[in-house]
Design goal:
The chain is mainly beta. It has a single domain, classed as Porin (Beta Barrel), CATH 2.40.160.20. It has an eight-stranded antiparallel β-barrel with strand order 1-5-6-7-8-9-10-11. A two-stranded antiparallel sheet has the order 2-3.
Length: 187
Amino acid sequence: MKKIILVAVVLLAGSVDVQAQLVRFGFKGGLNYANQNGSNITVNSDNYNTDAITSYHAGLVAELKLTDGFSIQPELLYSTQGATYKNAVEEFENELGYLSIPVLAKFNLNKTVSLDLGPQASFLLSERNQFDVKNAETFEFGVAGGLSLNLTKRFFIQGRYVLGLTEASREAEVKNSVLQISAGFKF
């Protein structure tokens, strides 16, 4: 009976070690360079041009290794996006805070670099405007693509572009776009 228990413990410990290598968790954070683009950017019947804003993102990362060259990386991020709106008379900033959930397919080009592609769903958590219109859509869908560079087995940096496919506003035909530069750590 003692031998059976010992064998069971050894097999269980071995399977836990294998599972730990297949799934890794971590966190990341970094800078956003965000803008809103569209064909009809009007607020209160005035036409505006947009300029990008610099903001941030931070959150949790999981990597599920399926093969040596392929893995899936779901993330849970808080990301601020938006733009600065300008016309001949005034200028104001529209900043939107999202809970973003990208699910990326990671194609390992070698042991250090991977190509990351996939969809992203975002849910609006906050809207900070310097004007009175509360007009942001509460859900946004987009696609993300970029590169990851593993500096060590635990530390990584990423560059990513996220393009919104759905409109970010009820009042104007605008879509979010954001360039993200991140650094992170996986356990």
